[in-house]
């Protein structure tokens, strides 16, 4: 593909950008800047940030997108990390969009973005959810709006649009694969340190502080959520399996094995039964669609049982936590009560629902005392508890119309990426996406919608597996997982 014309901003454009950032900071962040030494540190920090963006401007957009994916690990935790709540992950996404739209030098050999029919469906789903938020008067709530942007679809669907072009080349996909293996090593070791110690090795430190406030022994990682941590460690474990089949260096393969093992433990240490079930379903789905995978099902299951069984034997504390979690009944009662209340709410407003994020404020009158278990799991504005069933939550808040749009988006978007035609080099990504998608769909039955990183990772992976189809093909490409 011939290189495209690019735009190289003059040096004074970067100076103007630096001055604009300073002006905005002093206008909207005066209280923070007037305390301590931050007022003196902010100008050089902003200058360093502008220089970093200038460097990124000349690099391939795959690097910027990988940075955005990595930074989204800490989405929602920037304030607790002492960074003033600046959403660095969203800043990286904005830089990525600027690179692609303004034709930065790094995109010279990046294929053009291609709109497909599935993107129209995704846009309709986003507009529908946005309209629901406006009608329900939740659009003005910052947390509810961010949930719409980061979790329902805006940012993930945007990643699905961008990823086929950004990761069109093998070197860019290898960069993403290496990043996911490295993230898996971090998440897995953090889960082990978080659950079993030493706690001094947990980074960032807010993870330990959150665990102290909620001493349930479950590994939530930087997400502060065992479900999001379980999805992320499973997905990165899948990436480690892919790396084992593709990497040839001894040290690289050893690192992939290490990441796979700690991801396995990290997923287990979430102590979420829904995560365990989803992990088994995702692994089985990916294994059963290939001949080699079917041969490896039994050995892999035995190896997993030995590794986890050995950990339980060596750590009585962990065995006690697992035993207590398996027999924990309160969460079961919560889900039974929530399911019954959710079904009553769907019956009350079946088509359009109660409105985006309205379950927490409108659920109390739909709970009923059951005869065989106590009434738990209800939510109040002072004690917000989300509905622990993503499908039912969308049916309650967006109605059956919104639920159908969401399911159609997954079926067409992710399903089309798994089973559609593409380059042979994308087959491992398609197989991995199958495992990750099945995990996502199964865990959604037991738990609420995960946080930004899992959604961004899932749909970015989907875009990679979808690939860039040339406008004219002389030969029919290999299809899907065949």
Percent of residues in β-strands:
under 5%
Q: Quick one: overall form?
A: globular
Class per helix and strand makeup:
mainly alpha
What is the CA-based Rg, rounded? 23 Å
Strand/helix succession: HHHHHHHHHHHHHHHHHHHH
* Relative helix content: 55-70%
Number of strands: 0
Give the averaged pLDDT, no decimals. Answer: 84
Number of helices: 20
The biggest sheet amounts to: none
Terminal CA distance: 28 Å
Written account of the structure:
This protein has about 475 residues and is mainly α. It has a domain at about 10-105. The protein has helices at about 10-30, 30-35, 40-55, 60-70, 90-100, 115-135, 140-150, 155-165, 170-195, 205-215, 225-245, 250-270, 275-290, 290-315, 315-325, 330-350, 360, 390-420, 425-445, 450-465. Helix 4 runs parallel beside helix 9 (about 170-195) and helix 18 runs antiparallel to helix 19 (about 425-445). The radius of gyration is 23 Å and the shape is globular. The mean pLDDT is about 85.
